[in-house]
């Protein structure tokens, strides 16, 4: 498996002699054959600025760095779990890599391979399945139909500008669509993709919404999307803060929508720290809840999320309540090679899943500058087991928990009973 690298103009090459290496957190590691899969459809190769690639010279057995070149990483589509980072060293220690999840990529048998494992069916979330011409037409149609709805205006930029698939789905009327509601947040996430302090050194890849939507604006989007039994509408998007800070309008919108239709699923993507607000949203008829977390250990969680007036214990309390009320609960697990696969992290997450009656773990590759992240979080306390073994342990220890990558709907026997709809028996 040969090194893949780029020149300063972004042209990508494979090295005829040097072998590829990877990183696990801040350690350079060898790549195993069973960690490699062909580069998936929808993946993107990118150069890592201010880095140089590190490789193995098979003749001398020594590591070498290619001066004047850039390391190359792959950005994976949803459905694929990263197992290792690209092998590199920084040429500028102060430079922070853009907020993406970089995976190691190699050249093998005449094609690109990546260190990854498929954890879900990627078909629905393959960007290539989003018809741009149809999307443009639908955006135009909805804005023309609802000219006073600021949410459709906001989502049009997410769909067309950021190429966000969830917001695109809102216009295309398929699968899981998003409805952002909050401009504020009760956490100060180190890797927030919608808002960064001026001195963070990061550039947020999205712009956070700057208005509070009206209930009728939310209801319009929900009613347009919830038209099939399998449709999902989700509060809590990358372009907003914490949706439960706007619990009042969420509850009002949910009650109005459920008075008109019992079709589809209502989901919230949340940090679940505002337990009283989550209770109200659950009681209004929530079907699915996906909780974002990076760890089940307090010190690691607090270092990344910087929670304001809540703790990981509040998150757990919210999840237990939701599960007891029949909500299908999952976690949006932000994973990182060399951290998530630490022995203590795995043990803590398994116990957390058992205590909360978790149904689904959505493995999501953490978008972060590796050096900044490693400086932020506590050092390892136990053995490093590797990402592939971590996935195997989760499957063995949590046989009733789905290990996936994106939102699933619950099996028929686990679906929450919908509230009665006005005019229906």
TrEMBL record:
The keyword Protein biosynthesis is annotated on this UniProt entry: no
Keywords: 4Fe-4S, Iron, Iron-sulfur, Metal-binding, S-adenosyl-L-methionine
Residue ranges occupied by any Radical SAM core domain in the UniProt entry: 180-350
Gene3D superfamilies: Aldolase class I
InterPro entries cross-referenced by the UniProt entry: Aldolase_TIM, Organic_radical-activating, rSAM, rSAM_sf
Keyword Aminoacyl-tRNA synthetase: no
A Pfam family recorded for this sequence: Radical_SAM
Co-factor requirement: [4Fe-4S] cluster
SUPFAM superfamilies reported in the protein's UniProt record: Radical SAM enzymes (SSF102114)
Protein name: Radical SAM protein
Source organism (scientific name): Saccharibacillus kuerlensis
